[in-house]
Amino acid sequence: MTLDADLRRKVPALALGLVEAEQLQVQLHDPGLWTMLEELGERLRVELKGKVAADRPEIAATRRAYRALGDDPTRYRPANEALLRRVLGMRALPQINTVVDINNYVSLASGFAIGCYDVATIGGAVTARAGRDGDQYAPIGKETVDATNRLVLADAHGIFGSPTADSQRTMVTPATHQVLFVIFGFESSQAALAQAVDQVADLLGRFCAAQILDRRVLSE
Question: Looking at the 3D structure of the chain, how many domains does it have?
Answer without folding.
Answer: 1
